[in-house]
């Protein structure tokens, strides 16, 4: 980017800002990617924090003292919910005549509307180019997401809006694109003729970790599946775009979302299960809660490439192990080698592991040394060596450069809410939530969901 710009961070004292944004901004600074950045303005409301105190927080966040980096920063104290308090920020910004403004909303979603409205109003008198970055969760349901989009549209053009889904900044997720579209051997088999089903999982061994206020209102389906896992699904399933640009990539992703079979309210139990880990109420000091800490959903994409191939998406807390993965399970080989065996062949698999580490595995069948016949399962893997770029760094660079490919467009966000809305509605009226033991793989209902189809949940590391 050749133009000068400034960054304004709302929620500059929050967890995201301290643990992700400042370290990432510092990393970009050290790589000389912020040479055109004239100023970074952080905002916060805590009464005991002034600029001096803020710089101490910043130092702790980037784990070093760097005066020249610190000199880029200003700190403004104000309550984002109070209209009259935006004036100070407005005055500060009026000193920057040619800079593009990048506004980063690292605040709770309850503040998004007020910030957008106030910013939008005072920016009317500014000729500067602008971008607005909006964190997840974008909306609480379809209706609120549509409402937020309508508000944004009043003040910002779609090409100025960056809806973040940090999973899209992850190296392995982007490598799905690389593997699929740069290798002829994979493209030929990436369809219903060869693939039996696909599993996309985000499993955690930890609980809510201090985010109860947010999590108990939201639950696993909204927190992980509506956004991250459905986004991954769209990349796994999309057609190759005609060229590599943000419009074409996002056009292909939305086609996938539009092809997902609608789940009728009365059919929800056939397609989705939820659960709450045993002890959630005690851990979180709650007298009652129907919030799911586990959710699994089966989706079908009704198009030529995927018709009949189930996509199983699941996520949960306090499970046996952390694993974020995408597992492509191929159909069983028919004929001879399925009958004459040295050992049981399994389905061939391509697995993308996103966390805890980045790797791609390929499992297939091979004659064992000294064996008589094909085939025993073997697997080979490719792990990333070298610097692993933090997802937020990739996304921050894209924001600066104005590349929206890895950000969610208005129609995508609304469509993904539409997909999960019947499930949310059904669960809202159902008081019975299955309980699963901590340290397990989730509720038995989730096992049944996939077992009914003659399949089982897969894990990259066995
Ligand atoms: N943390 C993560 O790793 C993560 C990951 C993905 C997405 N996100 C999203 O990022 C956003 C921020 O998350 P977070 O974890 O950083 O939350 P957080 O720790 O609660 O930080 C939010 C910040 O916003 C400030 N704030 C809230 N209301 C305000 C108001 N009226 N006026 C001024 N400041 C106000 C808070 O100020 P006080 O300090 O005074 O309360 C706090 O510093 C959320 O939308 C979240 O869903 C976070």
TrEMBL record:
Active site (UniProt): 228
Domain Glucose-6-phosphate dehydrogenase NAD-binding: residue ranges: 8-175
Entry's Gene Ontology BP terms: glucose metabolic process; pentose-phosphate shunt, oxidative branch
Chain positions recorded as substrate binding sites: 166, 170, 204, 223, 317, 322
Gene3D superfamilies with a match to the protein in the record: Dihydrodipicolinate Reductase, domain 2, NAD(P)-binding Rossmann-like Domain
One GO CC annotation: cytosol
Reaction(s) the record says it catalyses: D-glucose 6-phosphate + NADP(+) = 6-phospho-D-glucono-1,5-lactone + NADPH + H(+)
Domain (Glucose-6-phosphate dehydrogenase C-terminal): residue spans on this chain: 179-458
GO molecular function: glucose-6-phosphate dehydrogenase activity; NADP binding
Pathway: Carbohydrate degradation; pentose phosphate pathway; D-ribulose 5-phosphate from D-glucose 6-phosphate (oxidative stage): step 1/3
Enzyme class, spelled out: oxidoreductase
Positions bound to NADP(+): 45, 79-80, 136
Keywords for this protein: Carbohydrate metabolism, Glucose metabolism, NADP, Oxidoreductase
Annotated EC: 1.1.1.49
Pfam families: G6PD_C, G6PD_N
Function in brief: Catalyzes the oxidation of glucose 6-phosphate to 6-phosphogluconolactone.
Family according to the record: Belongs to the glucose-6-phosphate dehydrogenase family.
Annotated protein name in UniProt: Glucose-6-phosphate 1-dehydrogenase
Species whose genome carries this gene: Dictyoglomus turgidum (strain DSM 6724 / Z-1310)
Organism ancestry: Bacteria, Pseudomonadati, Dictyoglomota, Dictyoglomia, Dictyoglomales
Gene name, Swiss-Prot/TrEMBL: zwf
């Amino acid at each position: 980017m050749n133009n000068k710009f400034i960054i304004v961070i709302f929620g500059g004292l929050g967890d995201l800002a301290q643990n992700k944004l400042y370290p990432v901004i510092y990393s970009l600074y050290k790589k000389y990617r912020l040479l055109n950045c004239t100023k970074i303005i952080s905002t916060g409301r805590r009464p005991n924090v002034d600029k001096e105190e803020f710089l101490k927080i910043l130092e702790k966040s980037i784990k070093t003292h760097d005066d020249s980096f610190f000199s880029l920063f200003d700190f403004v104290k104000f309550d984002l919910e109070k209209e009259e308090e935006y004036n100070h920020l407005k005055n500060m910004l009026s000193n920057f005549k040619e800079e593009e403004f990048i506004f980063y909303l690292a605040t709770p979603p309850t503040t998004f509307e007020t910030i957008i409205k106030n910013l939008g109003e005072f920016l009317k008198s500014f000729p500067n180019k602008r971008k607005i970055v909006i964190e997840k969760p974008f909306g609480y349901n379809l209706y609120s997401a549509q409402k937020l989009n309508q508000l944004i549209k009043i003040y910002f053009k779609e090409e100025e809006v960056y809806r973040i889904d940090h999973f899209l900044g992850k190296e392995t997720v982007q490598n799905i694109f690389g593997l699929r579209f740069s290798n002829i051997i994979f493209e030929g088999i990436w369809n219903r003729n060869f693939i039996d089903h696909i599993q996309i999982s985000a499993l955690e061994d930890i609980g809510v970790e201090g985010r109860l206020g947010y999590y108990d209102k939201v639950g696993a389906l909204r927190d992980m599946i509506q956004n991250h896992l459905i986004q991954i699904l769209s990349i796994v399933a999309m057609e190759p775009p005609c060229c590599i640009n943000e419009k074409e990539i996002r056009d292909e992703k939305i086609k996938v979302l539009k092809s997902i079979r609608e789940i009728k309210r009365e059919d929800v139990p056939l397609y989705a299960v939820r659960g709450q880990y045993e002890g959630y109420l005690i851990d979180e000091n709650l007298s009652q809660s129907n919030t799911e800490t586990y959710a699994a959903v089966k989706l079908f994409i009704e198009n030529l490439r995927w018709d009949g191939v189930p996509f199983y998406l699941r996520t949960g807390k306090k499970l046996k192990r952390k694993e974020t993965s995408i597992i492509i399970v191929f159909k069983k080989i028919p004929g001879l080698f399925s009958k004459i065996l040295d050992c049981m062949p399994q389905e061939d698999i391509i697995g993308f592991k996103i966390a805890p580490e980045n790797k791609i595995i390929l499992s297939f069948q091979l004659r064992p040394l000294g064996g008589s016949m094909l085939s025993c399962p073997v697997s080979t893997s490719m792990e990333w060596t070298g610097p692993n770029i933090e997802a937020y760094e990739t996304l921050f660079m894209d924001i600066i450069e104005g590349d929206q490919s890895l950000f969610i467009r208005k129609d995508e966000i609304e469509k993904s809410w539409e997909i999960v809305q019947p499930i949310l509605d059904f669960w809202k009226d159902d008081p019975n939530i299955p309980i699963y033991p901590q340290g397990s793989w989730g509720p038995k209902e989730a096992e049944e969901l996939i077992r009914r189809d003659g399949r089982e949940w897969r894990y990259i590391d066995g």
